[in-house]
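Question thread 4412

I'm putting together a teaching handout and wanted feedback from people who do this every day. The idea is simple: show students a protein as raw sequence, then show them the structure tokens that encode its fold, then repeat with a second protein so they can compare. Below is the first pair exactly as I plan to print it.
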Amino acid sequence: MATTTATTQATAPLTDGAHYLVAALLKNGIDKMYGVVGIPVTDFARIAQAEGIRYIGMRHEADAGNAAAAQGFLTGKPGVFLTVSAPGFLNGLAPLKEATENGFPVIMISGESSRSTVDLYEGQYEGLDQRAYAVPFCKASYRIDNMEDIPLGVARAIRTACSGRPGGVYISMPDTMIGQTMNAAAAEAALYAVNDPALAMIPSQESVDAALQLLANAKNPLIFLGKGAAYAQCDEEIQSFVHKTGIPYQPMSMAKGLLPDDDPQSTASCRGLAMRTADVVLLIGARLNWMLNFGKGKHWNQDVKFIQIDIDPTEIDNSRYIECPVIGDIKSTMKLFNEGLSKYDIHASKEWIDLLAQDTAKNNARFGAKTQEETQPLNHYNALGAVKKVMDKNHDVILVNEGANTLDDCRDIVDMYLPRHRLDCGTWGVMGVGTGYAIGAAVTTGKSVLSIHGDSAFGFDGMEVETACRFNLPITFMVLNNGGIYRGDFEDLGKSGDPSPLTLDATAHYEKMIEAFGGTGYFATTMDEVESMLTEALASKKPCFINVQLSVHAGVESGHISDLNPIPVVGPLSHSECVDLNEEVVDGKLVQTQAK
């Protein structure tokens, strides 16, 4: 009998580590993967595709990571990206860290060289202790050495990525594990799906009551909506609280559209005044980091009190004292806040509303004139003003945005009307995320995507236009080309004859890149051309590229964060002198003459 059993076991079907990892991912509903293949993960990617996972082959690991991060933000479930060992793995660490800082659930899977030779430093091909290197870049870093542990490793990665504050998780799969085998029936029986990976965290009633009482006593209450509020996907609960109380609100960039930007309670056009005069501020999914000046200093009312809703208790008092910490997930918390409105009289005073409305009207009139003024060449304001006209008619288009002035001005000019329809550099403030985010958004949603870049930012990840064409994704890329980092009029102060460290090519025809891969390119020099070309490109639902020619003098040093530059770079001309230069576009090229 024993002999018969042994014989049966020896002839039973087997599975290997690569197939088993794919099966574990599918069991947990992961049906997309972004990546760059090579030793030792090429066959793993082939198997994943064969078994039903949509594999999006990218041109750089960082872009694959950013595509997965976009998916995580839009769905609340971890996006997955794949890299090869060592150099490819290292390329993936930046987006892994960025996803963690942004609070996006992401799982990075990398192949790894044999542990036995790596640990003894024998000079293995692409040998690196990857799990150890990944630790400071993510929430957790795991290595699966035995294929029997694959269901557990995947489960731990998913729960870690999604629970609490979401973030990045790393899984290393050594080549020795990929080739291991085990009984296929036993492997199948051991698979399981994670049960509720992001459990609700209900705040204490005492903290909710304290927060509502503080709001009830406020003279000038203000709400800040961060991208965490958009990620939480409790849109109705947040909208109900804002509208029932009438409290003015300020959306952070990726929270734009959670309530439409044209909502009368929005303080987007009077943010400075709102911050300087608010006496109680409710933070929903927003953190007091550098983007909010750490909640202190000249930008804030010196007597302001903060209510902070956060799922991570270590975030409280991160940069200053928080009057009312409310620890819980946003959906559960906002449910209790709305229920509490029956006990607390919370509303914004007419004086407060009128003060903000007057400042909004004044700023809109001044800023609106900039977006409608015809100039030749264009600048960021009127080029984006033309974009706004198109986006105002296409609310469901997802907007991706990166650059310095391109990012800052687009955030201020182009309105959003639906939640989770804007992605940008976020908490860490890095460039080179745009095309990856655009691809992830298009693959995840199937919706049209407009990806707007500065010419400098586009250079980090521009090759992914080929990926968009290869997968025929409905993405329209747009570069606002002012010929440099911040702008294109800097000179070589050392007189070497070389371009300035900030100078790029103001006459470059970036649209030709997509034409090389079968997409449609456009070159725009006027507001009408931007509007008509963008309308046509979005309607095509095909890969398109619009290169918008700007003046080399368009833009300011470091965008809106020039105070972070310890030694500001001084350009060759002041802004008052710049307006006296004569420029024009002739035969598709920017022609510049001397000052008049």
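The second pair follows. I'd like the answer to focus on this one:
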Amino acid sequence: MGDSGAFLKIGRQVGEQRPVCERIRDYGESLLLRPYKQSQEQASRCMDCGTPFCHWGCPIGNYIPEWNDLVSRGHWKKAYELLEATNDMPEITGRVCPALCEYACVLGINDEPVTIRENELAIIEHAFRKGFVRPRPPRRRTGKKIAVIGSGPSGLSCAVRLNRAGHSVVVFEKDKKIGGILRYGIPDFKLEKHVIERRLYVWKKEGVEFKTGVNVGKDLDASKLIREFDAVCLTMGSRVPRDLNIEGRGLEGIHYAMDYLAQSNMRVAGEKIPKRKVIDAKDKKVLIIGGGDSGADCVGIAHRQGAACCVQIELLEKPPECRTEDYPWPAYPMILKTSTSHEEGGERIWSILTKRFTGKNGHVKRVSCVKVEFNPPSRNSPPVRVGMGSEENSASARFPLERKDSTPVRVPSFKKEDKNTCPIMKEIPESEFEIEADLVILAVGFLYPERKGLISKLDIDLDGRGNVKTDRDYMTSKKGVFAAGDARKGQSLIVWAISEGRDAAHSIDRYLKAV
């Protein structure tokens, strides 16, 4: 490191956000990029650890200390080359990754961790400005053809790695544009879509072929797919939403979060939505059920659409603001996270169970709720098996605990010393209340990939959670058909999807060399 003691002199300084009064008037990115000098200073805080646990925390194994050192000394091109070696889309993870690496930073034991994510973003944005990012088509082609189904982060990273290995890759996407959750699930105020287009331009020049508006299994027969390609990788994500099957669910005005997010992004991009299908929060009382990232994104959209008020409720208790003994360093902690959307207004309430929806003239108007508490387990209370979703930081997504009665329900414990027991959720007597709502958004996670169509026609095995089952080499029960990302793993983080795509590409390449 240029100055191994810089962390003793320089404090953590994160990038600034646009003023709330300004950013809620548009959908432009909230984050302001830092000046290069500030990024160099922040990179110098990396303390040249003997054992850099940031590697352990990062699913794709970024060379974090190495490129921090290079940035601190002004070697931006070399830093970019190291960053690009492990991450196919750092301009995206640098914006939306929850920064698992920062929670594992050794400096974070007794100080504020290094701003790793923003340093990463600074490197790649500098690289684009200076022209370091250029197409790198393979020198020769192997003659092998691979079909990648789905263009989310796992599909894109898989396609890129296989293409650079010399194979011919076609990415099939059923939507109008490439990007999957990156394009349709993340609002522009977190990720403007020109960032995706910039990267797609490079990959197209490298030889990756993209076909949009093709629903494989319907528009393209599964048997024909198998005949025409030497290998297939399923990366269609986990898109079947978790529902709340409670009284009044059939009322109008209740929508899934992904439908709301996707439609908003389409409208921002200028796509026309039929008037009868428009989901708009203007002048409405909005209730968002689910406390994860998708729920927070819906809060931000509601603000920008001019909601009269916005409330977000979560089933579990309010997380602590700092690490507890249940989540010691370097584990990723369950702590309170406040997004830019929360800073813009609205109310958040924890430990709330949704009981029923009531309406007028067929449209939702009120939501009945009750406060709950979590108590130590009782030996006489058998555990109730609950489903496991995986939306980031959302208990409502992980545990479908909506019950029509007041029967105690067990929820999984996070304590290592308490693996075989679970705290019990109970309704607090006489704590019932109602929330007025003209628009309700269900942000309670996803169950598994869509089974109708390609998955059913390929007749491949599923695991106990309904995801595509694979072996350790990412191959499904059908030879030559692989799976990666949320379709295989269940709903998870973008950085995990990238890791899955890269690993699957390695396995596919090895398979093709052996056949």
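Top answer:
Good format. For the second protein you could add a caption like this: The first strand starts at residue 145 and ends at 149. The two ends are 46 Å apart (CA to CA).
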